[in-house]
Amino acid sequence: MTSTTALNATPLPSLSGHSDHRGSWIPTWGMITTRIMELRRRRGLMIAIVVVVIGIPTIFLVIRLVAHAVDPKSYAPAGGYDIFTNLTAGVMYIFGFIMAAMLGCTAGSVDLTEGMFRHLVVTGRSRVALYFARIPAGLAIITSIVALGFTIVCVVCCVAAPRTLSYDSVTVPAGLSSSAFDTFAVDHVGATLCNFNYNGPLAINVPCQYDRATHQGTISDQKNAPPGFIMPSKQKLQSDAVVIAKQNYFAYSQEFLSPSTGLMVRTGLWLELEAAIGFIVGLGLGSLLGQRTVAVIIMLVYEVILTPLLARAHIAHLINVQRGLVGLATAHLEPAALPMVFGGGNGPQGANASALIPESRFVAVLVIVGWIVVWSALGARKMATRDA
What we know:
two-stranded antiparallel ribbon, mainly alpha, 2 domains, two-stranded antiparallel sheet, single chain
């Protein structure tokens, strides 16, 4: 007759008489590297993250590079300030969060779905340490991928930036001061009066003719003017050009040929913060639910549907709840030179921020810290109390 002995989950005492710190809630370096290897072995997930975070911006930029190289007159340069701001705020911000959340939901539930949780428990390691080991492991993966994708965007947008600045279809030198912009308007009266936008009626309305090749306007000669029209004096045209230039200077001052170093650094840190939040929240939610699919769907609905709606809709009785959205908090930390996230238009974030629920930066930081702490605590507690 043979008998079997139940596997004891209690760790054996160290034969050397020294503690091996298995009960410590602080993860060891070996535990972290093991979690990194486990996540990297999920090739389908890794390929999906790389394709979305790195592949989409890269393919977009390669197409623009090829198109401009083949026909530079019809296609604008591949890089530049506008391409940088729209790619980062419109593509990498949203997809970076979604992919980070997917990685977090996988890391928080993979042991249960693959039946490995019991084997981890019988090692005697602290369950809290096993959970916390996933945070640096997952962040090391997702932040590296986001950094690589962002680096590609920065390099192309700087190297392949346009050499001349086009403002309202007029070629204007970049970085002019207000007085220099007024001087440019005086020297280019026709383009200023015929191309630049202006508010309020002017004393004159000059007849314009447009060059189809350059799309720039010039003032028609008196002989080509409408019957009865008397061409104003040169001094009058120049004074009106200065009025229009002053109205357009702020919009012009927000246009750049390529992103500055400071803007790229701030934007990179902001994208990494968003990805880190997505991973940590996804990790906690995946651990709490014990499965990946439902957790990923919840994160998608939150980021793509709920956050854009609740970040803008002023609901009187829920305004403080809305301020607790982590998506709203990160939107208020967005660099001011970027277009506002969640479809905020083409203008700089500072010009469109009034569309968001008002929130101070201090409160935004508290909300972000709160989400990280709460979801980490919920995920760790669930793992610590789950039946093996």
